[in-house]
Every structure is written in C-alpha cells, then in structure tokens.
Design brief:
By secondary structure, the protein is an alpha/beta fold. The chain contains five helices and seven strands; from the N terminus they run αβββαβαβαββα. The protein has one domain: Glutaredoxin, CATH 3.40.30. The protein has a seven-stranded mixed beta sheet with strand order 2-1-5-4-3-6-7, covered by helices on one side. The protein is globular, with a radius of gyration of 16 Å.
C-alpha cells in the first residue's frame, strides 16, 4: 500500500530536471507580452527564479539575488517566472519593487513552466550556464542563500580553462 502512495513522487522526480541536464524546453509570455523560449537562455549565464508576489520567502530570495547582481554586475541574465494567476497583484508588486530593466518576467499562470522545471516549492532558483545547462538548484530560501548564489555565479562566470 505504501509503495502505491509513493509512486506519484517517484514519477514526478523521474521527470524533474537535474544538475548537469539542459534546461527543459518551454515557451511562455512575458509580463510585457513578448514571447520567451528556452532558446533565449543560450549564450549567457542565467538565473531562473520561480516566484510569486504573495510568497514572503520568494520576496526575500529575489532581494538576495538582486543584491548579488548588483555586486557582480550585469554579467548574468535574470528571468523571474511568476507562478501566479493574478497579473494585477504582480504588477503592483513590481511597481513597488522595480526590477533591473533587462530582467525577463515570464508569466506562468497555469503552472506549465513550473511543471517543466519540476518546481515543487517556492522559491526555487535554477542557475544555468551559457549553454543552458543546469549547474545549481536552490530550493526554498534560508540563511546563506546570498553567499551560495554569489559563490555559484562567480564560479560559473569565471573564464573556462
């Protein structure tokens, strides 16, 4: 009986992208109405942050990654995936907490993008290299996140030998 209860978890984890694998294929729209696809992640280090404006840990995590970006400069791209159906609430949050101009905000009203990435909690942040390979995943938010993100991005942005 217990094995039947665990089956959905095993199936979900079997399709969840892992470190070392390519970012999953996806197509979404940005808050501005533009199309964004997995191909857009090629050619630069990218942080993909699953976020909701009602999620307090998400807000803390976003603040931390923005601080890392300010520290390291615009050497990596930032894509926020808004996992919520309430675009007005998101717009209100972003009006009060402006993001850098070049940040991509992808809408994921129905959770399609979250499912493609295997995201099962908020916040979840994926750190992708310039070939859109997942190099690190941070699930949740807690102490040490800024230091980890800084270390991971510094390593990823270092010249290859």
């Amino acid at each position: 009986m217990i094995s039947l209860l665990l089956l959905p978890l095993l199936v979900a984890n079997a399709t969840r992208p892992q470190v070392g694998e390519p970012a999953p294929a996806f197509a979404a729209q940005t808050l501005a109405g533009a199309d964004v696809r997995d191909e857009n992640l090629q050619g630069h280090v990218t942080v993909v942050d699953f976020f909701a404006s009602w999620c307090e840990p998400c807000k803390e995590g976003l603040s931390e990654i923005l601080a890392v970006r300010q520290q390291l400069g615009r050497r990596f791209e930032l894509m926020i995936v808004a996992v919520e159906g309430d675009a007005p609430a998101l717009k209100e949050f972003l009006a009060e907490h402006p993001l850098p101009e070049d940040t991509t905000v992808a809408l994921d009203r129905d959770g399609t993008l979250a499912r493609a990435f295997g995201e099962d909690r908020l916040p979840t942040t994926f750190f992708l290299d310039d070939r859109a390979i997942i190099r690190r995943i941070n699930r949740g938010h807690g102490s040490g996140y800024r230091a980890r993100a800084t270390r991971w991005l510094t390593e990823m942005l270092a010249p290859r030998r």
